[in-house]
Amino acid sequence: MKTIVTSIRVLLVLTALTGVVFPLFITGVAQLVFPEKANGSLVYVNHEPVGSRLVGQAFVSDRYFWPRPSAVNYNPRPSSGSNLGPTSAALRDSVLARAARFGAPVDSVPADLLLASGSGLDPDISPLAALFQIDRVMIARHVPRTSRGQLDSLVRAYVETSQFGLFGESRVNVLKLNLALDSLLP
To answer: How far is CA 23 from CA 17, 29, 30, 34, 100, in A?
Structure first.
């Protein structure tokens, strides 16, 4: 009986330490050391959160740059890819539909605009994918052709290079680019 009581006490103490004290300590340290990251890297406009730099969101209007497609409709709870293989008819059909949305043949559309990411929540696209969308955005915003260089410069200004020149590829955060686009061309 003494062993059972001791075991229950140890269980309660360890549960309190690992389930309450330690998480509260780590949360406190995170809030002190890097609060922006600890709070989800939220992006604010006029003191209102409009999204996160780390989680993709749908932009469906032609007035905006579109993100990578999402197999989970940008819902972070069931974050996952589609698990469709290269011989899947469903994958082929979705890729063809996405290419048709751009009004272009499949082989001319950057792959990251046709295929969902592994998480379905990728906030970034390649610089090539962003540059590919400039004409569509210009038409939707009634921007004269002579201003294409302005949008091209905007996209290039938001290209983030690989970390330390080694990890990852160059990318453009779609939320940050679209917010800059709104401030440039309301």
So the answer is: 9, 10, 10, 16, 48
